[in-house]
Specification:
Elements: E1 6-10, E2 19-26, E3 29-33, E4 44-47, E5 51-57, H1 66-73, H2 79-84
Antiparallel strand pairs: 1-2, 1-5, 2-3, 3-4
Length: about 90
């Protein structure tokens, strides 16, 4: 189950194949951020059916800044990972 602190992969939309951290859940939606494109101050609201959870959980209390969040997600959001699926935002880390 996708919950607060879960690292998720977007499987639909212009951000397809990018990884995010779930900051909160609101019914069938999750508020997600990655520290780069989507900042902690302005998370994206995305339907749960458009997200796939990973086995990684990060305590949201440990990533208090966009820089820390971006660093925590860096192993997931590499150029090779994004380009491999043929979508997402190329050249962004």
């Amino acid at each position: 189950m996708i919950g607060r602190g879960t690292v998720v992969k977007s499987i639909a939309g212009h951000d397809k194949n990018r990884f995010y951290l779930v900051l909160a859940r609101e019914g069938d939606f999750a508020l997600i951020a990655d520290g780069a494109v989507r900042k902690l101050s302005a998370p994206k609201k995305k339907r749960l059916k458009h997200l796939r959870q990973t086995l990684t959980v990060i305590d949201p209390g440990t990533v208090l800044t966009d820089k820390a969040l971006k660093a925590a997600l860096r192993p997931f959001n590499t150029t090779e990972t994004i380009d491999q699926e043929g979508g997402g935002i190329l050249g962004k880390e």
